[in-house]
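Exercise 7. Given the encoded structure of a 381-residue chain, write a plausible sequence.
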């Protein structure tokens, strides 16, 4: 086993400590208009989108005034394209906030195009449960890379509230929608279906190719990714996550045959113990944060009139901390198993999850790895 694998997993663990993903919520679209005024000139492009859902079960989870957000536009058709825009918290050059609270929601304004093409955005839910969204993008404010996708096109507008907030998807397409699409414009009105976009970027496959996975629906695996010969696919297939990313242990590795296994010597245990110490420290911090947030929630709930926005935010943070603790504990368990193997100078079979050779009875699974000791592919240290 190459020790670099441990470092890669460690980087994944550290990323878990800084990224909290919220849930996906869908809103029924009302109208979408995408225009390219002059072909090939991004400054003439624009987008106007509206969503309106009566008696919606959705709720606002997140605080863009503090954490900001991103807005993604995905257009699918003969010529698909997409673009993601940053909608930061804070103040513009004139000292005005980008985000404002409104009755039942919030709005975003970038009057001078300091952050790009998104000039206006708003989302709110009124007392009767009407959930609405509006977005206005102008190429003259900032570069717009997406273009009308041609005949039969459809689109998505997706707001992702950062800092552990939810992702809100508006779908403009599907059965029942009125769609008029050309190379110069796309107009969609009164869509019925609600869904989030599938993965619009391929999974990163070292020494392989995941481009065929673009368009995989949320929650579905991609089985068409490939590896460069003579490497073989190993681990689980990449699965399109709700946030547009990929999950899974997919990678390209040598086939488990004679000579493909590598000795793992005890000197590597120093690096492993260092990573374990960092992980244990991270667990302590996560646990402290979880306890503090639970206390804040308890204090809010005993108030005569608890703030539902604060309660939702704290509940979301608690779920995020709990998830990160579980993931970190699972990683540390795998690393401790590897430390035991290293200290015994055992052989590991390139990360495969099947027996080293057919009929190798002594091969045994260890946290997704296979020990190669006594297998025909093992070599003496």
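Solution.
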């Amino acid at each position: 086993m190459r020790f670099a694998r441990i470092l890669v997993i460690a980087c994944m663990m550290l990323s878990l400590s800084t990224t909290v993903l919220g849930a996906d919520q869908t809103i029924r679209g009302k109208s979408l208009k995408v225009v390219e005024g002059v072909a090939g000139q991004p400054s003439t492009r624009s987008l106007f989108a509206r969503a309106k859902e009566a008696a919606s079960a959705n709720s606002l989870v997140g605080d863009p005034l503090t954490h900001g957000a991103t807005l993604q536009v995905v257009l699918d058709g003969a010529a698909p394209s997409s673009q993601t825009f940053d909608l930061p918290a804070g103040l513009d050059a004139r000292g005005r906030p980008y985000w404002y609270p409104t009755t039942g929601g919030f709005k975003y304004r970038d009057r001078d195009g300091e952050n790009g093409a998104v000039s206006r955005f708003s989302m709110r839910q009124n007392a009767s449960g009407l959930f609405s969204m509006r977005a206005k993008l102008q190429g003259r404010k900032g570069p717009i890379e997406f273009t009308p996708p041609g005949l039969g096109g459809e689109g998505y507008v997706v707001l992702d509230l950062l800092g552990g907030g939810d992702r809100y998807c508006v779908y403009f397409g599907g059965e029942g929608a009125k769609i008029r699409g050309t190379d110069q414009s796309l107009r969609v009105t009164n869509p019925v279906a609600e869904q989030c976009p599938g993965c619009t970027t391929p999974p990163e496959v070292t020494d392989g190719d995941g481009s065929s996975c673009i368009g995989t629906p949320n929650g579905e695996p991609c089985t068409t990714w490939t590896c460069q010969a003579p490497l073989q696919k190993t681990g689980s297939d990449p699965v399109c996550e709700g946030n547009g990313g990929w999950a899974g242990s997919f990678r390209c590795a040598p086939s488990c045959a004679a000579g493909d296994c590598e000795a793992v010597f005890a000197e590597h245990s120093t690096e492993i113990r260092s990573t374990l110490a960092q992980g244990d420290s991270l667990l302590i911090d996560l646990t402290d944060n979880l306890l503090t947030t639970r206390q804040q929630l308890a204090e809010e709930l005993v108030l005569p009139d608890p703030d539902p926005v604060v309660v939702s935010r704290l509940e979301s943070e608690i779920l995020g901390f709990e998830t990160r603790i579980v993931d970190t504990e699972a990683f540390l368990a795998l690393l401790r198993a590897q430390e035991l193997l290293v200290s015994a100078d055992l052989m590991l079979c390139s990360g495969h999850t099947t027996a080293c050779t057919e009929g190798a009875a002594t091969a045994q699974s260890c946290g997704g790895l296979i020990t190669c000791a006594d297998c025909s592919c093992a070599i003496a240290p």
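Remark. Residues 1-19, 256-267, 342-381 have pLDDT under 50 and may be disordered. Students should compare their own answers with the one above.
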